[in-house]
Amino acid sequence: MDTETWIWTIVFFGGTVVIVAFLLYWAWKKDRGRASGPEDDAH
Amino acid sequence: MASEDTRSPAREMFTSRFAFVAAAIGMAVGTGNIWRFPRDVHDWGGGAFLLAVVVANLVWAIPLLMAESYMGSKSRLGTVGAFRDVMGRRFTWMGGFMGFATIAIMFYYSVVCGWAIRYFVYGITGKFESGITVDETRTIWEGFVDSPAQTITFHAIAIVLVGLVVIRGLKGGLEAVLKIVVPALFVLLAILAVRAMMLSGSAEGLRYLFVPEWGQLRDAELWLQAFAQMAFSTGAGWGLYLTYCVYMRRREDFALNATTIVAGNHLASLLAGIAVICTVFALGGTALGEQATGAGNEGLTFVYLAALFGEMPGGTWVFAPLFFLVLALAGISSLIAMVELATRNVVDLGVRRRVAVPGIVVVTFLVGLPAALNLDYLSNQDNVWGIALLISGLFAAIAMMKYGLEQARRDMDVDSDFGVRAWWTVLIRLFPVMFAVLFGWFIYQSVDSPGKDWWNPLDTFSLATMVVQWAAVAAILLLLNNVLARRIRPGPMTTVATSDDPGPNGSAGS
User: Fold this and answer.
1) Segments forming the whole domain that contains residue B87
2) Number of inter-chain CB pairs under 8 A, A vs B
3) Nearest CB to B263: which of A11, A19, A36?
4) Assign residue B217 a region: left if phi > 0, alpha if psi is -120 to 50, beta otherwise?
5) CA angle at residue B38 from B112 to B126, to 5 degrees?
6) CA distances, B391 to each of B59, B68, B241 (Å)
7) Nearest residue on chain A to B273, judged by CA atoms?
8) What is the dihedral of CA B145, B303, B195, A1, to 10 degrees?
């Protein structure tokens, strides 16, 4: 595989993987320790 | 679902953010990610198209999904009730239009899911054996779609399977299934992508996918195709995310959730792109790769890929079944969201879920029959209601503007780590402009295409067939507006939404 293909594969695919992993980690961290309680009730 | 009665809005909530995000990503990831996205990227300049898709995700999908999530979580009602309570009783029909457009897609999407299930069955029975040719897989495809017994049977299997999930309600049905199916979908996509990359010659596929042809960015059509792909792929404007947000816990991060869902959907598209394009170019070479990507969604998937699996080591018994399983799971996870959208609206009318879901399954089966029997009809419906989703998105943006963007922004900002600042209000205000450009381009294309009778409502892909069907549905919904507004159960916002101007900018909502 040529260098140009490597670079753009890493930029687009690797970049997306890193962003998704970061967002999931962020969401997990924010959610950690939170239990469903009365504030989660719809009413 | 014992906890859901017919007098009050939805009581069930997703048990965790993971469950909610998994369900919402399952909603967004559908067959389009697997058979349309790879072709679009290949056709429109690889990385240049990807860049345009990222921009489209940022300026269109994320703001619109946030608007939908605000409407669903505030109203705790389906699309019809949400528009009534967010926008005012006179505009209830708009929620009906949004719901109908997605339900109309559900009718034929069940048929498409049936195709994927059929090909999964072909896969596990070793149909795509070593040495199978493109002509032979084309014969298999044509034999299948020309067999009403088969298309109808698998359409029925798809909608009944989904009905069995949705009837069990949120925790026991959707959440329990999607928490497993969606991560499994990503694992299987990753396996297929890695396998494709390990094939000799796959670098050519990666080149087509990722290396940008920068000159293409100057082509307006690339941008319009990227926005169209994104609008259909993310589910923004469909009302599906709005429906899932009816069950969203309080104090969720609107911006983080929407961004995670859009990014997750994009990752699924890229994995599918690698799996499909690398396989086609590695096993078929450039000439066959060009033929395959130019053969349409069904041609690429059911004819070319099916044939190429026969040439792949382990293709017949492992990778062909896995690929069609992925296609089926992606379709079913989206179909679940569509059936839930229909169910939520019917339950809001006071019907119990256990009655509503079987009714929706039967109606979907019956109304989907023409699509199962006639590919032209299916294409017509795909065109008419696919484009109508852009209108649904516009309705959601208008609803937020009427409600009060600043109030909504402040409400969303309370629990958002991503500050929901002026960028959101500006992008929602810009939405009608983006819609006008995209929709205007589409109309121009329709009228300008040589050989197409754009004025003929009986033509499968004409502008007139779309306008006539949209107008007919809108007219019926306008006539039913007051009935719907009255019959939909009250929600948490309904006490302040009995006037025509419920928003914080109006007197009733202040």
Assistant:
1) 17-493
2) 85
3) A19
4) alpha
5) 55
6) 17, 14, 16
7) A13
8) -150
pLDDT at B500: 55
> Is B447's pLDDT higher than 90?
no
Q: Which of B308, B273, B279, B271 is nearest to B189 (CA)?
A: B271
Best A2, A3, A4, A5 residue to mutate vs chain B (most B CBs within 10 Å): A5
Q: What one-letter code names the amino acid at B443?
A: I
CA dist B9 → B172, B396, B509 (Å): 18, 21, 19
- What letter represents residue B194's amino acid? V
The answer to the question of residue B4 being in a domain is: no
∠ CA B321-B326-B328, rounded to 5°: 90
Q: Tokens representing B381?
A: 């419906």
pLDDT in tens, B299-334: 889 999 999 999 888 999 999 999 999 999 999 999
Q: Which amino acid is at B63?
A: P
- Whether residue B52 is contained in a domain is answered as yes
State the nearest Cα–Cα gap between A32 and chain B, in angstroms: 10
User: What's the rounded Cα separation, in Å, for the pair B327 and B325?
Assistant: 5
What CATH number should be reported for the domain holding residue B241? 1.20.1740.10
Over residues B214-239, the mean pLDDT reads 88
Judge whether B504 lies within some domain.
no
Q: What is the pLDDT of residues B22-69, one digit of tens each?
A: 999 999 999 999 988 998 898 888 899 999 999 999 999 999 999 999
In this structure, how many other beta carbons lie within 10 angstroms of the beta carbon of residue B425?
18
Q: What is the pLDDT of residue B9?
A: 54
Mean pLDDT of all residues belonging to chain B: 91
Q: Looking at the domain assignment, is residue B500 inside a domain?
A: no
Q: Which of B262, B230, B261, B252 shows the shortest CA–CA distance to B23? A: B261
- The pLDDT score that the predictor gives to residue B174 is 93
Question: Which candidate from B76, B209, B266 shows the least CB-CB separation from A42?
Answer: B76
- Helices B17-28 and A15-31 pack at an angle, to 10 degrees, of 150
Helical ranges in B146-219 per DSSP H: 148-166, 169, 176-197, 202-210
What is the reported pLDDT for B1?
40
Cross-chain Cβ contact A12/B9 below 8 Å = no
**Contacting residues for A38 by C-beta, under 8 A, at least 6 apart:** none
Q: What is the pLDDT of residue B510?
A: 26
Total domain count for chain B? Answer: 1
Whether residue B501 is predicted with pLDDT greater than 70 in this model: the reply is no
More confident residue, B119 or A33: B119
- CB crowding B183-200: b at 16 or more within 10 Å, else e: eebbebbbbbbebbbebe
Distance from C-alpha of B36 to C-alpha of B225, rounded to nearest angstrom: 11
Please state, in angstroms and rounded to a whole number, the distance separating the CA atoms of residues B84 and B421: 26
**Of the partner residues B10, B76, B263, the one whose CB lies closest to the CB of residue A20:** B263
**CA–CA gap between residue B150 and residue B55 (Å, rounded):** 42
